[in-house]
Structures are given as C-alpha cells and as structure tokens.
Amino acid sequence: EFTDESVTLNGQVIETKDYYLNSSKVNEQDFWSSKYNESPSPRWNLDEPHPELKSILPQLKLTKRRILVLGCGFGHDAAYLAQQGHLVTGIDISPEAINAAKEKYSNINGLNFELCDIFNLDSKHHQQLDIIFEHTLYCAISPNKRKELIKVWKRCLAETGHILGIF
C-alpha cells in the first residue's frame, strides 16, 4: 500500500522523502529548466519514446485522435504519437525542454509544442482532446497539486475522451 507520505511493504511502513513538498519551486519554470540543463540529461529522459508506449499503442488500434501530452519534456512521446498519425500537442513549462523538442521534432506533421504552465492552459484546449497521455507529470508535480491536475484533465478532455497513462 502507499500514500503520498509512505509505502507499506510486508507490514513495515517506510516514510517517503518529502522532496516536492519541501520545494516551493517545483511548480515553477526555473526549477524545471535547471533540471533540463543538467548534465547528464535528467534521469527520466530516455532519448526515445517510453518502451511501454511503443508496446501498447499498436494494441489499442486507435484511429486518428487529438492527443495532449502535458509535461512533454523533450517531446519523445509526443513525437512518437504524431508519427503514428495522431494530432498531438506537447506542453511543458520549461523553455529549454520545449526548444529542444521543437529543434528535434519540428519536421513531424500533426505535432505542435507549446510553452505553458499546465495549470494555466489556454481555453482553446478545453473539451478538445480525445486522449491525454500521462507518463511523468503526475509524479513530478507537488502532491498538493494533483487534484488540480485532475481538473485540468477533465477540462481538456472531450466528453468521450480518455487518459492513457504509463505509471
């Protein structure tokens, strides 16, 4: 079992580090930009789409969908989804991440990247998306912002939209 504060394994409660709650900067642009400027690259950057996304997507047999990738980072997952024929928007708060994504993937049709705080999305995204792809954003934000993230998902998804997540 687990909560935001601990994990219980074989009856033993193990408290988890309050990494994000102690950092008031975790929801700010500069915090994430500094992570994307680290060398070597941030540990979550696989330099390719997540292997599970590549594995599961063909099984889903999706027709062309409007997909939003919040916290897209360097854009690998967003690019892969667009290469499969979907209309994809990747959004990140870090200018470094968005610039790198645009530099690497600007030639892919149906792919757009936007620099934006996901908690302040433009209303053009409201009720417009068929799928929101979730890979790392939920765990990257402060736990006290997770309910707000769910509200963002609900605002952005069309009535028949879905979350596709790799956790």
Q: Would you summarize the structure shown here?
A:
The chain is of the alpha/beta class and 167 residues long.
Report what the structure shows.
This protein starts with 5 loop residues before the first strand and ends with a strand. It has helices at residues 29-36, 51-60, 76-83, 95-105, 137-140, 146-156, and strands spanning 6-9, 12-15, 66-70, 87-92, 111-115, 129-134, 157-165. It is an alpha/beta fold. The chain is globular, with a radius of gyration of 16 Å. 31% of the residues lie in helices and 23% in strands. A five-stranded parallel beta sheet has the order 5-4-3-6-7. Strands 1-2 form a two-stranded antiparallel ribbon.
Keywords:
single chain, 167 residues, alpha/beta, 5-stranded parallel sheet, two-stranded antiparallel sheet, 6 helices, 31% helix, 23% strand, globular
